[in-house]
Amino acid sequence: MSGVQIRKYQEEDAESVKEVFTLGMSEHIPSSFMHVLKQPLTQMVLMCTFCALVTSSKSFLLPILAVTLLLAGARLGIIYMFNRYIEATLSGDLRDVTNSYLRSQDSCFWVAESEGRVVGTVACLPAENAPGCLELKRMSVRRSHRGRGIAKALCRTVADFARDRGYAAVFLQTSMVATDAQKLYEHMGYKKIKEFVLPDFFGKIINFTLIEFRLDLQPDGQND
């Protein structure tokens, strides 16, 4: 954490915050594609397509081409899913961070700054589906600055903020492919409370799971 300052968001941070978020989300595309390849349904479709075309065409060229096209289509589907979420977020709460997070005493948005550059972000606001909890959102750290304790410090910032305002817990959602984030939250004392498949059509097809975590806060700050 040497040389890194955690401070409240300022208007001049807007583009940097969007960049950190977009880069962080895009990193999950390769692991999500690998998840799709491991699904029994995917393997069955690829195998059936390959065998059917080998049998009908008496050639390996056509089935190999067909399987390649199916894989390319699956990857494009993953990219579309992530890009849709990124665009929705950029046009949603990140379009006006001040209005989304800094108008209420129970919500806030912080950035981690190093040498004048935004290298990490985190936010929180009252959780819609968890009464008495604050929801941690928009946690991201640039790849170049990971391993320095920045994410842990951002987590503590949210926990301290929630505790100071009398909230009982901090709640968050992350995805099954964000394995580093899951390890971080568990290290910080969060407990996994629920897993569910992304409710849209493509999420159900690829069995893309979201995970909910909860940190029950101690008044004396023992969570730290």
TrEMBL record:
<dbReference type="GO" id="GO:0008080">
    <property type="term" value="F:N-acetyltransferase activity"/>
</dbReference>
<dbReference type="Pfam" id="PF00583">
    <property type="entry name" value="Acetyltransf_1"/>
</dbReference>
<dbReference type="InterPro" id="IPR016181">
    <property type="entry name" value="Acyl_CoA_acyltransferase"/>
</dbReference>
<dbReference type="InterPro" id="IPR000182">
    <property type="entry name" value="GNAT_dom"/>
</dbReference>
<dbReference type="InterPro" id="IPR050769">
    <property type="entry name" value="NAT_camello-type"/>
</dbReference>
<keyword id="KW-0472">Membrane</keyword>
<feature type="transmembrane region" description="Helical">
    <location>
        <begin position="60"/>
        <end position="82"/>
    </location>
</feature>
<keyword id="KW-0808">Transferase</keyword>
<keyword id="KW-1133">Transmembrane helix</keyword>
<protein>
    <submittedName>
        <fullName>N-acetyltransferase 8</fullName>
    </submittedName>
</protein>
<keyword id="KW-0812">Transmembrane</keyword>
<feature type="domain" description="N-acetyltransferase">
    <location>
        <begin position="69"/>
        <end position="216"/>
    </location>
</feature>
